[in-house]
Amino acid sequence: MTGLLLPAELAARARDVLAGRVKPVQARDAATVVLLRPGPEVYLLRRKATMAFAAGAYVFPGGSVDVRDTDHDVAWAGPSPAEWAAVLHADEAVARGLVCAAVRETFEESGVLLAGPGPHDVVADTTGDDWEADRLALIDHALGFAEFLARRGLVLRTDLLKAWAHWITPEVETRRFDTRFFVAVLPEGQRTRDVGGEADQVVWQQPADALDLAHRGEIFLMPPTYRTLSELAGCADVAEVLAAPRDIVTVMPKAVEIDGEMRLVVS
């Protein structure tokens, strides 16, 4: 495997890290959600070119765990934090935060909310001005996720998430994330919205088509996104994705020198 060629500045940092001259930064807990709809198609956002991390890359909705994501006041339906901890190979507090962050970030970045008034219901529409005000307040940290759900009489539907993968940003990067990937089906009645923020373009795409665009150099995919799309491309429909057995194994690409060039290699 030839791996992904590192740009000169990152290659220099990689050599420093490998030689012990630079200490890797701590990876932050994060969650990413692959939204699915029949096709199957996935929801992708292109990160703005001005972003400090993964600029210009097509990614799934997601982001870092906020301290308030671990709030025990978050109304919860579906598998418990303890059950998620076993699936995600994390302690209960981390698992709670990851699941909450997955749902919160999906709402912030797509307008889709995996929550409902009860354990068997889901919100049918999140497109009104009042929903938009809440979404912006969550992004600005003016509103906590627990408060948001409580005020609307909603419970987090953790059963709508399926754990998919676990990726850690390489040690050579200056911004690092310890990210759990989930998949979820777009709830009936809801629709994604181009809500701006960190993305300048959004698209629904069949996994195989997204991979083809990446191979032609028309879009940029980071290794975790590429691997996830490759796995999803082997599924005929959404039901097959949800039924696919998953053993959550940690993957962290590593920088290696190949023929004088520093490359990222995924084992």
Automatic annotation (TrEMBL):
Domain Nudix hydrolase: from-to ranges: 26-227
PROSITE patterns recorded: NUDIX
Matches recorded under InterPro entries: NUDIX_hydrolase-like_dom_sf, NUDIX_hydrolase_dom, NUDT19
Gene3D superfamilies: Nucleoside Triphosphate Pyrophosphohydrolase
Metal-binding keyword on record: yes
Cofactor(s) the protein requires to work: Mn(2+); Mg(2+)
Keywords of this entry: Hydrolase, Magnesium, Manganese, Metal-binding
Lineage top rank: taxon: Bacteria
GO MF terms held by the record: hydrolase activity
Name the record gives this protein: NUDIX hydrolase
Annotated organism of origin: Nonomuraea salmonea
